[in-house]
Amino acid sequence: MAAKTEKQQTAKAETTQAQPVKAAVEKKFPLEKLRANCKKIFGVTDCTFAGATYGMTGNYTITEIKARLEKWRGTEVK
């Protein structure tokens, strides 16, 4: 077949570049599993993890728990 013209190749390249890259969906884990591995994953003791996640249940991403730990660490003691 005939070679594509420069205009066709440029249009295809622009279309490919214009498509947004989809972010990977972060996996959620049961809170108990994150608690069991908190030292390895977050670098905190189980006591710190328990304090920061007090009252929480369900499944969370590692990013969500990291944010929760950072917020909890910044909280003043009453």
Task: Give a description of the structure.
It is a single chain. 55% of the residues lie in helices and 5% in strands. α4 packs across α5. A two-stranded antiparallel ribbon has the order 1-2. The protein has 78 residues and is mostly helical. The chain contains five helices and two strands. 6% of the residues are buried. The chain has a domain at 26-78. It is elongated, with a radius of gyration of 23 Å.
N-to-C order of helices and strands: HEHHHEH
Please state the average pLDDT score. 82
Reading side by side through the largest sheet, how are the strands ordered? 1-2
In terms of structural class, how would the helical and strand content be classed?
mainly alpha
Helix content: 55-70%
Keywords, separated by commas or semicolons:
about 80 residues, mainly alpha, two-stranded antiparallel ribbon, about 55% helix, elongated
SSE diagram, text form:
Blueprint (H helix, E strand, L loop, with lengths): L5 H13 L10 E2 H6 L1 H5 L3 H7 L6 E2 L1 H12 L5
Antiparallel strand pairs: 1-2
Helix pairs in contact: 4-5
